[in-house]
């Protein structure tokens, strides 16, 4: 954060807001900002940020702006904080430079963070069933009335984004599993354990050994964790695989166009795709849709982050910015807290594995 006594307000960029303070609601802002060159600065809104300094706590307004802007501490905060200037002037300018450089890297790859749907380029998922396997068709299961509207909305969303498409006929059909979410929407997936999972050919590609992943991170002092949006569903199915993954609903038959959760080979298929995208970059590990980058210095780490984001952007994927963490000295990954001293188990370690393989 840069001190700017010429700035009337304190501000952060959209990237910093989503990455660090996204849990705080964005409100309308009365501010109209211009730079020292007279350029208008687009304002997205403002938040009420909790601040603790020298043992005192405050709730202070913080303006969120678009574009590649440094984080500024302006006069509206300075009058409340009554800064200890002797301490402030001992802060190295390099710290502000590092955060400025991080914002530049993220801004360079801002298309990755769009909220539309990603599609991995040049790769498709293939589902193979055993020789002689006979099609299995299930009727739709009865759906409680309270779930009909959220299920229909989710089907509309999935159809809009090309995740599924309507079909009039299919020799294969799985009933759906409905998982209500906290926001009153529903997640849908096929109950493939009663259809294609019974006769699917195993995927030969192995999931990575966790010990090998952590060995790759040895010596790292800085970490960035990247979470992909919609995970498997960024990978399109090849035409011959789609028929096996048809779902039967109270609104009719829908055929998946993208790799869904619930298919027994989906984790290995997606892992193979991600390893192909990220191959050749040192100090980077990936377990399914969770990517972790390290580095022994800030400069090395930002260079590696730039390489990874470049590869992801070129592949056509989308990243969920609100779940990413950049340039951290400690992160949680696969049930461990990782820092320069090594691995430290967390309470979530065991529960994580259930989530990885079920998608819930």
Automatic annotation (TrEMBL):
Keyword terms: Hydrolase
Main enzyme class: hydrolase
The organism's taxonomic lineage, starting at the top: Eukaryota, Metazoa, Chordata, Craniata, Vertebrata
SUPFAM superfamilies: Acid proteases, DNA/RNA polymerases
Domain Reverse transcriptase per the UniProt entry, residue ranges: 160-338
Pfam families on file: RVT_1
Keyword Hydrolase: yes
Name of the protein: ribonuclease H
Gene that this sequence comes from: LOC121400593
Similarity section: Belongs to the beta type-B retroviral polymerase family. HERV class-II K(HML-2) pol subfamily.
Molecular function in Gene Ontology: aspartic-type endopeptidase activity; RNA-DNA hybrid ribonuclease activity
Domain Peptidase A2: 1-77
Annotated signal sequence range: none
């Amino acid at each position: 954060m840069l001190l700017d006594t010429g700035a009337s307000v304190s501000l952060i960029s959209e990237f910093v807001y989503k990455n660090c303070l996204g849990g705080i609601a964005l409100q309308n802002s009365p501010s109209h900002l211009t730079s020292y060159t007279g350029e208008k600065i687009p304002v997205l809104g403002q938040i009420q940020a909790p601040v603790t300094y020298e043992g005192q706590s405050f709730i202070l307004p913080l303006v969120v702006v678009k574009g590649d802007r440094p984080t500024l501490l302006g006069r509206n905060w300075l009058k409340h904080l009554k800064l200890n200037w002797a301490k402030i002037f001992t802060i190295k300018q390099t710290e502000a430079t590092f955060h400025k450089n991080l914002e530049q890297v993220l801004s360079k790859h801002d298309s990755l963070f769009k909220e539309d749907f990603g599609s991995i380029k040049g790769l498709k998922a293939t589902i193979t069933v055993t020789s002689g396997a006979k099609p299995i068709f299930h009727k739709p299961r009865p759906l409680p009335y309270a779930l009909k509207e959220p299920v229909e909305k989710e089907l509309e969303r999935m159809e809009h984004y090309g995740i599924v498409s309507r079909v009039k006929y299919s020799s294969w059909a799985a009933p759906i599993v409905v998982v209500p979410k906290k926001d009153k929407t529903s997640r849908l997936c096929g109950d493939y354990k009663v259809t294609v999972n019974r006769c699917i050919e195993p995927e030969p590609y192995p999931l990575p050994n966790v010990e090998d992943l952590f060995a790759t991170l040895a010596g790292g002092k800085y970490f960035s964790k990247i979470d992909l949006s919609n995970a498997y569903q960024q990978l399109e199915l090849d035409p011959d695989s789609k028929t096996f993954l048809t779902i039967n609903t109270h609104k009719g038959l829908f055929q998946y166009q993208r790799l869904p959760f619930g298919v027994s080979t989906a984790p290995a298929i997606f892992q193979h795709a991600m390893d192909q995208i990220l191959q050749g970059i040192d100090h980077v590990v990936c377990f399914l849709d969770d990517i972790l980058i390290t580095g022994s210095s800030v400069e090395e780490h930002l260079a590696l982050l730039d390489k990874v984001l470049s590869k992801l952007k070129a592949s056509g994927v989308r990243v969920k910015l609100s779940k990413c963490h950049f340039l951290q000295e400690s992160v949680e990954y696969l049930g461990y807290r990782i820092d320069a001293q090594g691995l430290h188990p967390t309470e979530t370690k065991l529960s994580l594995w259930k989530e990885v393989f079920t998608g819930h």
